[in-house]
Amino acid sequence: MDNPSRLSRKEASHVDIPICEIGEPLVSVSNLSSKIKTFPYYYQQNIPNALPDCYVRQGVAERLVKAANLLPADYWLVVLDGWRPYQVQQALYQMFKQELMAKGLQGEVLYAELAKFVARPSKNPDAPSPHITGGAVDLTIANNEGWLEMGTDFDELSEAAHTSWFETKHLLDDLEQRAREHRRLLTRVMSEAGFVNYEKEWWHYEYGNQRWALKYGQKAIYKGILHL
């Protein structure tokens, strides 16, 4: 796992897309399916106010089940994060800000770089960061041997974490080829279930929020939710 000092969320800033909230509740990902397990990553890393379970909107939960059922029989999804309280988003934002400042960044350069990797915390339900909508989910795939090789750790701050990283490289070694195939598998099942991938994170998928709506040219259906 990553050192907590490296924890951050590489999310795009708020997308200015209208939201027509449909009122779906947040539901626990635990016990949705035998092919879905949870590992609440930030809770495990002792991030303040992180939750011991993962929650998503009802529509997201239904699509996770669909995606899991598209996997081979001996594979399952591992959900690492879903709905994220404002306080957790704020903690991650500040942690990454401090990390960049320690590298000497400041002023406009600091905030420009920060915006590439972590969404600014927002209490405005009409201008939410992705995870606070309940429409974003971070996940990987596992089998009886453990989490599949994906080429980077979850939450790694590097270009190698870009979903298509191994598609652009030539002469892959055996480990890189496995990572490429595993990313392809995750992308396929999640896309077929209706999710949109954030291209800078192989683990991050969205449904119903503004970035999802931008891809499909329609209104978003999930506003921000400030409290569970």
Summarize it.
The chain is built from 6 helices and 8 strands; from the N terminus they run ββαβαβααββαββα.
Task: Please describe the topology of this protein.
Elements: E1 26-28, E2 36-38, H1 41-44, E3 55-57, H2 58-69, E4 76-81, H3 86-102, H4 107-117, E5 136-143, E6 146-147, H5 174-192, E7 196-197, E8 204-206, H6 210-216
Parallel strand pairs: 2-4
Antiparallel strand pairs: 1-3, 4-5, 5-6, 5-8, 7-8
Helix pairs in contact: 2-5, 3-4
Outline the structure in words.
This protein is of the alpha+beta class. The protein has a single domain, classed as Muramoyl-pentapeptide Carboxypeptidase, domain 2. Helices cover 31% and strands 13% of the residues. It has helices spanning 41-44, 58-69, 86-102, 107-117, 174-192, 210-216, and strands at residues 26-28, 36-38, 55-57, 76-81, 136-143, 146-147, 196-197, 204-206. Strands 2, 4, 5, 6, 7 and 8 form a six-stranded mixed sheet that branches. Strands 1-3 form a two-stranded antiparallel ribbon. Helix 2 (58-69) packs across helix 5 (174-192) and helix 3 packs across helix 4 (107-117). It is globular.
Oligomer: single chain
Given this structure, which CATH class is correct?
A: Alpha Beta
Q: Indicate the CATH architecture.
A: 2-Layer Sandwich
Count of alpha and pi helical runs: 6
For the biggest sheet, the summary is: 6 strands, mixed
**Can you give the mean pLDDT?**
90
Structural class: alpha+beta
Taken together, the total number of domains comes to: 1
Order of helices and strands: EEHEHEHHEEHEEH
CATH T-level topology: Muramoyl-pentapeptide Carboxypeptidase, domain 2
Count of distinct strands = 8
Radius of gyration: 17 Å
End-to-end separation in angstroms reads 27 Å
> What would the principal axes of the Cα set say about the shape?
globular
**How helical, in percent, are the residues?**
25-40%
- Low-confidence sequence ranges: 1-13
Q: How much of the polypeptide forms β-strand, as a percent range? A: 5-15%
